[in-house]
Amino acid sequence: GPWHPKKIENPAYQGPWVHPQIDNPEYKDDPELYAFDSFKYLGIDIWQVKSGSIFSHFTLADSWDDVKGDIELVNTFREGQKAKKDEEEKARQASEEKTKAEESEDEDEDEDEDDDDDDEEEDKPDL
Predict the structure, then answer these.
(1) What is the dihedral of CA 32, 33, 35, 41, to 10 degrees?
(2) What percent of the chain has pLDDT over 70?
(3) Cα 39 from Cα 66, distance rounded (Å)
(4) Which own/partner pairs from 8-12 qualify as long-range (CB within 8 Å, at least 24 positions apart)?
(5) What end-to-end distance do the CA atoms of the chain give, in Å?
(6) Under 8 Å CB-to-CB from 39, ≥6 apart: which residues?
(7) Which of 65, 63, 61 is closest to 42 using CA atoms?
(8) What is the spatial distance between Cα 29 and Cα 7, in angstroms, rounded to a whole number?
(9) Are 64 and 51 in contact (CB under 8 A)?
(10) Spatial CB neighbours of 55, under 8 Å, sequence gap ≥ 6
(11) CA 85 to CA 10: how far, in whole Å?
């Protein structure tokens, strides 16, 4: 059967280790530490799993009312982009179907010509 390591009792076991909390006497709270006059830039490190993902329209605000307005603008923009993408997808599919239909018509014509050639060869006597 499968091998299992022996379990040895440890009478000194006190449970999972918890690191001690040590006060830092040099620590001073600074409420202005991350306060800037302007948040002009935003840096994000993203590990992307699916290609084609687009990240845009980031909002940094102090007021929820400002964010609500931005959400409405972004949703309107997103709906427009989605409609445009759907139209492009429909046009692409229609183009592909048209191309396939033309190819199948060309193949049918080629097969008819090949059949005519085969009939002519059958009529010839073997020499």
Answers:
(1) 170
(2) 84
(3) 15
(4) none
(5) 78
(6) 60
(7) 61
(8) 48
(9) no
(10) 44, 46
(11) 65
Reply yes or no on whether the pLDDT at 32 is more than 60: yes
Q: What is the mean pLDDT of the chain?
A: 82
Distance from C-alpha of 52 to C-alpha of 85, rounded to nearest angstrom: 13
Residue with tokens 């280790």: 17
Answer whether 58's CB lies under 8 Å from 42's CB.
Answer: yes
pLDDT tens for residues 63-78?
888 888 888 888 998 8
One-letter amino acid for residue 76 of the chain? T
Q: How far apart (Å, rounded) are the C-alpha atoms in residues 71 and 57?
A: 9
Using 50, 70 and 90 to split pLDDT, how confident is the model at 90?
Answer: very high
Residue for token digits 């049918």? 108
pLDDT at 52 over 80: no
DSSP per-residue codes, 83-109:
HHHHHHHHHHHHHHHHHHHHHHHHHHH
